[in-house]
Amino acid sequence: MSVWSNIIRWFSGGYTRQRGAQSGDPQSGGMVSVAVTAETAMQLSAVWACVRLIAETVAALPVAFFEVDAEGNWAAKDDHPLALLFAGKPNRYQTRVEFFETLTMQLALYGNCYCLIGRAGKRVVSLMPLMASQMQEVTLLDNGDVSYAYSDGGKLKVFAEANIWHVKLMGNGIIGLSPLGHARNAIGLGIANERAVAKLANRGFKQHAVLMIDKLLKPEQRQQIREQFSDIPNSDDYSLRVLEAGMTYQPISINPKDMQLLESRHFQIEDICRFFGVPSVLVNDAGATTTLGSGISQIVQGFYKLTLRPYLERFEASIKNHLVDVAERRTIEAEFDFSALLRGDDAERFKTYKEAVQGGIKTPNECRALEGDPAMPGGEKLYLQAQMVPIEMLPQIGSKPGDGGTGDGNPGEIDPVAELRSQVDSYGIAVRAGAVTPQPEDEDSFRDKLDLPGMSAAVKQAWKKDGGSRRPITLKDASDGKPAQPRPAPDEE
Predict the structure, then answer these.
(1) Most exposed: 7, 265, 323, 369, by fewest CB within 10 Å?
(2) pLDDT score recorded for residue 157
């Protein structure tokens, strides 16, 4: 790598992409003399709380794998090799929760997390996290490949791109920008404040001061007085001292109140939380306010949408594109199940279940399963609000009461018009409830029964392109018990 490339990398960091070594740290702007490392930063309660909250929340969400068919239907794929790997132990040392805690912590601090991929043929059989602090160099080679140099036990190991699972935050596409590096001024101020408080506490919160005497002293007299009174500002000894010969004790340092030390420490909490995207109220900042809402449910939902979801999307997309075999990438999807995270209180949940069951969206047993309750007989059917009957019985709703379900009340006789109206109305109820997707075949059937012209091939093709979102035309004509009137074909309207 040329000297010029090194100079460009030094001044640009992860904001440009050049051949050679990549860096996610800023190369300028450090204004605090305090050294900021992951170890010193994590000793700040705000940094620890933010990183812990993000890492533990992401790690607590289970990972599910799905197979998507040609029609876009999703089916659980619990027997997929990656599903089995993440459900058990991704490596010999960690459970799934511990594994994702490590990855998310590295991602939140360094903007990058790395795993060494172990394969048996094409199958991924292990994922061993590599510490971002030990990743010495990520290099973009002249041919466009990326290599990873990792320090392990004093030895430098170089890995090819295919053997490393690399998840990164925003950056130049090769490496992610480091939150720890970019927050070093804010974190450094927090560390400096902590040290200042520690020094004050060690000397009993006494201020630095001078002894003033109204006469000239000889050198040996100054030394004697210095030794006699040096412990006044530098110890927690509060014993009574007697000053002689017109001596006065004059503080020369600013007291903590005038320094606004407490206010400064509170501001650093908010500033650090901004870097990590965590509402400070979630890290036990009692005096904090948030624009995400007033209730804990609203705050958690806002935190999920604005902070956690981007982390989860990164992991999901990276799993699909780097761990799933190329032949399966069109059909296999990985998703974190966040339903437990957004779980509301009892009133909210049961209101949602009621609307889902009455709208024909979920069966009662599906809602019971979400609560951990056993299935009940008959609860596997979809229902609609119209008298809460099974959906397949809806065509019977429109007929007038009679011994045989007839249109005029006479036993054994069925009114064709009433029966047809019932079918059309029931179909419309199901469509509007979202329980049924309109199909061209259903429209053709109703048109045939109502003596309406059939749909042209062009209209059928347009219907299919719309994904079944068109409202059946016959629903506009069947109302008030009157049979639909003949109409021109849809392509002529």
Answers:
(1) 7
(2) 93
Of 380, 351, 345, 355, the closest CA to residue 365 belongs to 380
* pLDDT the model gives residue 412: 45
Q: Other C-beta atoms within 10 Å of 302: how many?
A: 15
Round to whole Å and give the CA distance between 281 and 50. 11
The CA radius of gyration of the chain, in Å to the nearest whole number, is 35
Tokens (6 digits) for 477: 């004509």
How far is 352 from 358, CA to CA, in rounded Å? 10
- Of 139, 267, 252, the closest CA to residue 206 belongs to 252
Phi and psi at residue 370, in whole multiples of 5°? -65, -25
For residues 427 and 442, the answer to whether their CB atoms sit within 8 Å is: yes
pLDDT tens digits, residue range 91-101? Answer: 999 999 999 99
CB-CB contact of 132 with 166 (8 Å): no
Burial class (CB in 10 A: 0-12, 13-18, 19+), 185: middle
Strands, E, within 275-384: which ranges? 332-336
Tens of pLDDT, residue by residue over 140-153, are 998 989 999 999 98
Are residues 207 and 253 in contact, defined by beta-carbon separation less than 8 angstroms?
A: yes
What is the rounded CA–CA span in Å between residue 124 and residue 65?
Answer: 15
Number of Cβ atoms within 10 Å of the Cβ of 378: 11
Q: In this structure, what token pair is assigned to residue 222? A: 């100054």
pLDDT digits (tens, 9 = 90+) for 237-274: 555 566 666 777 767 566 666 555 666 677 788 888 88
Partnered with residue 140 across adjacent β-strands are 20, 146
Q: Could you tell me the two tokens for 254?
A: 């600013």
Angle between helices 184-202 and 45-59 (to 10 degrees): 130
